[in-house]
Structure formats: C-alpha cells, structure tokens
Amino acid sequence: MVGYNKYKSYNSESGDEVYYMAEVVQLLLDRAPYGVLVQLLEREDESTSSSTNLEKKTALVRKSELSPVVASLRLGEIVRIYRIQTKASYKLEAKLAPARIWKEIEDPTNEEEISPTNGMKPLLILDLNGVICDRGTYASRRHDRNSVTRPYALDFLSWCFANFEVAVWSCGKRENMELELFQGRTIVFAWDQTRSTSLWPRCSAVSADKPLFLKEIQHVWKPRKFQPPAITGKKKSETKIIGPDAMSWRRAATQPPPVPAKTPPPPRSFGPQDTILLDNHYEKFERNQVGNNIIITTWTREESSDTALARTGTLVQLLTKYTTVPDAAAFGKEQALEILPDPAPDAYVPGAKLIALAKEAQEDLVCGKKEQKSTSPRFGGNADTEDDTDISRILIERYCASETHQKACPEYTATRYLKTRDSPGPRARPLRRRDLPLITEEGYALTEKTDGERGWFLACERGVFLLRRDLTLAAKLLKKHQFLTRSTTILDGEMLFEDKLFVVFDAVRVLDEDIGADGSNGAPGRLSLAAKKLKIQGTGINVGAWRVAAKRYWTIDDDDLQTIARQVSSAGAFVDESRANQSDGLILTRLDDSDYSGYYASQCFKFKPIITLDIRLVGLSKWFDHNRKIIQAMLSAKKGSNSFTLPAIDAAVAGERGSELIISSVMVPGDKLCLLFDSSGNLVSTKPIAECVYENGNWFLVRLRLDKRLPNSIRTAWAVLESIADRLSVDQVLDAMQSGRVAAHYDKIQRKRKTQTLMDEAMYRLRRLNNLVKALSLETAINFYNSTTHSCLFNLHRAKSYEHESTQQVLETLRAPVTEELRRNFKTKRGRRAVVVELGCGRGGDLGKWKQSIEIDKLVAVDISTESIAEAHSRWKKMVRTGDHEFVQADFAAPGFSVRLREQLLKQKSADFIACHFAMHYAFGTSERLAELLDAISSSLSNGGIFLATIINWTELYAMLESGTSIGDLCSVSASPQSIAAMAKLPLNDAIPHIAGIQYTFSLGDAVEECDEFLIHTPTLQALAKQRGLSLMLAQPFPDFLVEAHTRDPTAFSKLAADMGVRPKNTDNNKDPLSEDQFRVASLYAVLIFRRDTDYKENEISSPSTLTAEAEEWTPASLIKQSS
C-alpha cells in the first residue's frame, strides 16, 4: 500500500509557496484521472530559491468542488498553478493558484491611450452576486455560506478571458467575494465595496439594511494605470504525449525550446473607448455615462433553467459586438434602450431615461420622499396641524433608548431611522416551503393578518398619535388622556382608517415599561401584558374618535385554531366577539423570542393564501384613450360584467429596476371598472395604486389603494412572484404547527426522564415486551432481505387476537420467571455491510439491536425531538466510536424531506433497511405528509430493501373506542364523534385514496401524554406503498406475531424474552410479571414489513388500480361530513 512517506512537495527553501505558469496540453475531464494535464513553463518569481527546476515537466490538475474552474479550461490556455507535489508513483500533481492581479499604478502623466484598435483586448468588469453566482440572502447565509454558480457561468468566464481583459468589481466585502471562480487566471483588478462610492444614508433597493454603493466607472480610467504581469516566454509545444492511448503523464520533448528573457509590458490605461461594466442593478450606474454599462437580469439559485450566460444568449452576442468596435462608449449609446420591449431581453444597454427613472423610484422607496399631505377623511382632523418631525423623533428616540435594543441592534441608531424615514422593528417575511421545518422545530403562534396599513400607536406628553411606517403623522387622536399622556406607550399594529380602528399585535413600551425586551413569551405574552395594563381586553378602548383593540393569538393547543385559520384563508375576513374586519392572511410569530432579544429582533412570517400585490397603474391614461368608447358606454349604462375583461393596463412596482415592468400588465374585470372613475366619468388618478390578485396566470384589479402612497417594492414583488411557484396551503401550515407541538411534547418527556431516577413501574415490562417484538421483527426483516420469497402473511383483522388460546400460551411463557442462566449471547451477523435509516429513532433504544444484528456501513437516525436525538447520538457514540453516521433533528414527513434524506443525509447511497417504530401515525395528518414519507422511503431504498414499521392497528383502536376508552390506568384514547363515525365507515380491505386527518388523542403511561395522533388505514397504506414499488410482505398484530415466533422456535423465543427483560428474574415471589393490561396495550399494535420491488422504476407510479372504485366518497372530509 502506498504511504505518505513518499510524498514530496516543491516549495522554496524558505517554505514559501512556489508559483508556476503552465499551459493546458490535454483534457481528461470525463475519464481517469479526471482533470487536465499542464506543462510547466516558468517560475513566476525567480527570486525565491529552490533546488528543483520543474520547467517543461507535466503535472495533473484534478477536477474537484474546490476547483470548479478546472472543468472550463481550454487547450492552450495559460494558467497559474502552485502546491506542486510528487505522489508515490513519482507523478506531479498541482492545484490552480489564486488569481494573479495586475499591479495598480497612479500615473498623472498624459500618455497616448491604448485602445482595442491597437490590438489590445477591451476591459470587461464583472459583478459577482446575482450575475455570476447567487450568494443568497443574509438569513440563508447564517446556516449555509456556500454560493451557487449560475448556469453556464464557468463556460462564460472562459469565453470572457479569451476575448477581454477581465476585472471584478463587487459591492460586497472582500471576504465574501467568490474569487475562487478565477483560480489560475489573471485579472486586471478585484475591487470590493471599499472602492465603491457610498451614498449613505441612502439605502440600496436590494436591502434597506445596506447602504447604496455606486460603481463610478471613471475611477477605472486615466490617470490610473495597470501594470500587466511579465510576458510569459513560452513556445507552442512541438511535443506529444507518449504511452498507450496518450494516458502517460510523462512528456517527451522533440527539442528543448529556447528560454527567452522576460520583457516587462508597458502599463496600460483604460478609457470610455475600451471599458464595459456588467451589473444587475441600475442603481450602480447612477453617475456613469451611457454606453459603457450593461444590465443583466438578476439570477437566484432557484432558476435552474437560466440561459442568460449561454454562448447563444443575448449577453454573449452583445459583448461579441463590443470586441469588434473601435469605441465602446459610442457603440453602447447606439445600442442603448430608453423603453424596454415586452418581454425584456436578458441583457441590454440601459439608456439615460431608464437610469433616471430607476434613480427616482429608488429614492422614493428608500428615502421616503414626502408628498403633499392629503385631505382625505382617513386622516384624523388634527394631523395636518401637528409637526410630524418632532413626533417621529419622540417615537424613534424612545424606541431606541431601550437597553435591550441597544444590545440587540446597536448599529440601528435613532439618527439612522430619522434620516432614512424608515420604521424600526421586525417585519414579517413571506412564509415559504423551506420555512416549514423552522415552524416545526420552534413554537409558533398564529393570528389573523389585518388588511390595513401598518403603523405605530404613540402616547406621550404631547398627546396620542398614529404614525405610518415612514414616520409621517397619520392622525392625532387626543391632546390629553387621563393616564396615557402621563408616560410613554409605543404599540405596533394595523390602522383601519375607514373603521377608525387600530389593531395591536405587539408592544414595545407600555406606560414607560420596556416590555419589548421580554422575549420569554414572545409577541403573545407581550400583547397580553400590554392589554392588561391598558385595559384593552375584549372590544378594546376608545381613544378619541378611534378604537384600540388587541389581537388574539392562537396556538396548536387551542381548539378553534383550525376554524379561525380556515375562515380567514377562505373568506378573507376575520370575525369574533370583539371586532370584524377584512383579513388577507395569517401571521405566525415565535412563542419565545428570548434568543432574538424580544421585540427588537423577533422573527415572524406572513402567509397569504390569496396572492395579491399593490401595483402602480402607470399606463392608465393611455389605456383610457385606447378604450374610451367601450369604457364610456359601460359607465353610461352603469353596469359591468365580471365575465367581461377589458384590455390590460401597463403597471409597475417601485424598486431597483425603476420603470422595467416586473408586473407587465393588469386586467380589469367589467364589474371593477367603476373603481377607476369618479361620478363625472374622469379618472380618479392618472397613476393610482391598485391592489391586484393573481389568478390563472394574470393579475386582476381588486380595488384602488388610495390610502397608500407607494406600491410594493421590487423586493416584495419578487417575493410574491416566488410564492406563486411555492404555493402553500393552510393545511400545510397547520400541519407544521402540529409537528412542532409533537416535538415540544417529546422534548418535555425527555427532560422529565432526565430528572427522574426511576421509570414508571407500569411501563417497565411493556417497554421490554415492545423491545422483544422489535428484535423479532428485525430478524424477520433481515430474513426477507436475504431471501427471494414472495410469501406474505396478513391477518390484521382477527378480532381480539390477544384472547386466543395460542396467545395465552405465549403469555404464560413471557410470565415464566428466569430459573437459570438462559441469557442469549448476541453475536453480530457477518455479511454485506448495510445502510440503515431509523425514522423516529427516539432516544436510540433500537440502535443496539441494529448493531447486534448486522454490520452497519452507514446509519441515519432522524427524530423530531431535539432532546431525544441528542440522547440517541450520545448512546451511539458510546457503542461505536467511529463510522459514518448522521443524527438529524427533523420531521420525517415535512415537505422536502425525501430529497434531503436521499441527497444530503444518504449522499446518494441506497438504504438497505428503513425502520419507523411507533411514529408513522404522525405522517397521516395530511395526504401530502403521507406522500412525502412514502416517497422518502421508496426513493431511498435499494432494490430488495426492507421497510419495517410498528403501528397502531386501526381495527383494535376503533374497537377500543367503541367498547371502552381506557385500559386500566395505563392507556387511554379519545376521539371526536365525527372521527369515530368516520372510522366506522372505513372499509376493512379496500383502499381509500388520500385518507388522512382522522384524529384521536392518545395517552400511554409516562411515554405519551394526551398527544394528538392520526389513524393509519392499513389497506390504503398498502395500496399507496405499492404504487411506489413497496410490496407488503407481512402485516400481523403483536399477539399473532409473537405466537408465530414462539411456534417457530420455543427455546430461542424463551431465551430472547429473558434477555430482553420481559420475563421476571425473581424466582421467590414471581415479582413484577407482565400484566394483563400491559399485554392488552401491546395488542393494540401491529408489525408491517415492506420490500421494495426489484423491477420498480422511479417516476413511474402506476395507476391506483387497487383503490376502491368509490374513491371520491371515501375522503376524510366526506366521512366527517356524513357523520355530522
């Protein structure tokens, strides 16, 4: 075996890195050794001493994730390499070195400019994030800091280096720049935000938390010059690779080429005639002349089919023209667009008008530029007479005076907020599918999203006021109040001007108390404390002409949670005993904000089942002129039809792209036409803001938002467009909250167990009996895995199997005391190493059984409880100190888990065994969760692989609910009358498509305390599994399964029962035998074993021919409806 003792590295005698320039001479990217062969040309720095001269030798540069550039290298390309090493076979290997950068020179002399017409390449300056790669948002980079390269980016860079001198200019920090994409190559410069012009306090349209940086292209031009590296004295190779199939790494030279002396090239300056700046944001070009700037569409990692950087794309075609013209600026002005076509191209030269409009929109968005105050009756009568500057200063300074705010957000000062006219505090971001695991892992509460305008309630010595998010004054409610104006109160909420209602959903300060710092109970706790202090429970309190009411938060423990959530989602309105108002969605907020410094940095999400967006109708006048006759006819007839839709109106949203029509048009239903005109038939406004709804691929007018001054920002627009492709249902949101409750439940039990020294005596033998069944089922699963038998055993419906004579014989064996040493000696069975996945692993009690039964190549253990998975990991590390294992806290039925299991946890390996003991019922909450779990199992199992599960037998569960709801003091079960009636209608043998959501509440000793679970209808599970290539091999209740094992080998069964601790050890008084109640509880469960078909092909799910013909009437909703 080759050892590391023959490894040699070529460094200078001082230990410094040695860099060589090398020529790519052969591409071996698709075959071993997977890389490129380079011929070393010359040392980069001859001043460093080294005893070895490697010139003319050949080295291998391997392709890897850390060197993505290798795959894009071309034959004959000159690259920079380092870390040259000789491996054991005396072959050279090297790595691509960091990019070599030209030397920058400040030269005030006025020498003749060098242009592309003199045979020099023009300069192409590239941006990184959003152009070449996607760095992700700051929130996503907290957990994953890996950038994702844009499709075709590496090939595009190779093309750029062949046709341009390339430079990099990013407005990010140096350490965040993806310079590894330029490994081995030479670039003119690599500038970061320190070389950009900051316009603080103006903020970027990309993020209100970032200053606006400009890339002033004139800083690149004279008098600044750049010194290229010394010209490499290389000669085109006249040699060939020797050896069979040209695979030898040695190189034979026909004749040693002469080594010419290095000649230092003259410094080069650039100017408008030979410089092109590529970026994805208009705002960076604010001070640049037209012609030298190119805009490319922003790319995010979700857009896997993007072709903007392809060689056949618009950008490469445009840049190709730049390489052939003598004056880039003049050519760019000819190509500049002042109005974008529909659809807009992927890349283009923006004209002066587009840049100016973008600047105006950006200033409006960020700086909160004031408009003339409206006299609309939605304002309080005294708003126009009050100086809102002083009031906003009071609000912000007292907000920022909190000690907790200063600790949590010290960089967010009062001066900053006042300059940018932006409100502090958390903002709810759209709930995405990727956020559901967070809802599951951490406790969240839910409330309705009032369809009003977000604002502040401020009470101070100056009076009681309402302020908008841009800190302008909306209304003055009172000059004095009996107790509010004696101290400071700051409340966060929604303003409903028509109803004169302020709805509070969180509190910052109440009567001078800084309750915003209390994160232990989150927003619900702070709001409850504020409502109690201000006495605004129930319908609220009257403050002047306005009413102030407090929202209510619901948790998963509230019985009416699902009713409220579905009411808001379907009807778009909220109604309770305190108020009734329009509502356009739900808000989810953490129950515990202590990790986020309370209110000041809390985290919340918004869920909108109906996709809406506030858009400015910029083309309303033109639209009216084109359709004047038909509009006037409809207005004069005073009628409109919802089935009739007028031609679309041009529309836009505010943001970084200015007048580029992100939302290109809005349709106007006939019955909404009257909203655009007053009683005289004139337009209400030439550019009003309209709330629009997305339906069937189009945006439709819903109403005008005269209470808003600005449309939604570009960031909001992109988020809304993303939500269209990432639609969530209210059931998925509620299911995530339910999963979070389950996680909290088992975390609580695990913490309780850690504090107890003794286990519940009533559960002792039951746990050991369950362990016996799982050990036997594991042996059976291994036998199925190692055999090709197709025999199946199903007898789940034998009534009261625990009372049969054969079962009683087994029970006598299990109660028989251990009279001699009969302990079974476990020996690990040798054979092919197996990959094992344990879903719902709990505290890891079954991991030892796996270790004793098979050799484990890789183990993946998943559980929803943080406390339990930590305990399981600790147990495993004590049993196996090394090895490949993954312990993950996750919901195994959450959206996306199947992909995560296959690609991230198993890393494309196939599992031989997947087990899920006593936990599968949590996947039956919705059809989507059940499908996700079955997809995860099917796609992760190898052909012939085994899925093993222990579940509650639904027929036994139903019988228990019918005859009695408890088994002694050990176990109890309850369900609603609707659920019981739905169970009664389930067929014994026929499958029902999409059966999920039949809920019951289960308690079992100290293991399960009133936890909501969902019924598993075994025939449906069998049919859905079969569609995914999983054949049911065994389905038996625990009693019958034990009888089968006892009959097969009574002696081995008795020994295993003793070893598992089921049989008592005390022979004097037969202490603590297995009781009737314990065995009766075990009889509720059943063993299922599935095997993945060897001829099953993924993505070819067969039609559900095994499902009953009366499928549609056998849905949970219809069952419960019939039962009601």
TrEMBL record:
Pfam (any one): mRNA_cap_C
Region (Disordered): 1100-1124
EC identifiers of the protein: 2.1.1.56
Top-level taxon in the UniProt lineage: Eukaryota
Record keyword RNA-binding present: yes
GO MF annotation, one: mRNA 5'-cap (guanine-N7-)-methyltransferase activity
Catalytic class of the enzyme: transferase
Annotated Gene3D superfamilies: DNA ligase/mRNA capping enzyme, HAD superfamily/HAD-like, Nucleic acid-binding proteins, Vaccinia Virus protein VP39
Catalytic activity: a 5'-end (5'-triphosphoguanosine)-ribonucleoside in mRNA + S-adenosyl-L-methionine = a 5'-end (N(7)-methyl 5'-triphosphoguanosine)-ribonucleoside in mRNA + S-adenosyl-L-homocysteine
Keyword vocabulary terms for this entry: Methyltransferase, mRNA capping, mRNA processing, RNA-binding, S-adenosyl-L-methionine, Transferase
Family matches, as CDD domains: AdoMet_MTases (cd02440)
Domain MRNA cap 0 methyltransferase: 761-1093
A Gene Ontology cellular-component term: nucleus
Transmembrane segments: none
Name of the featured protein: mRNA (guanine-N(7))-methyltransferase
Species in which this protein is naturally found: Aureoumbra lagunensis
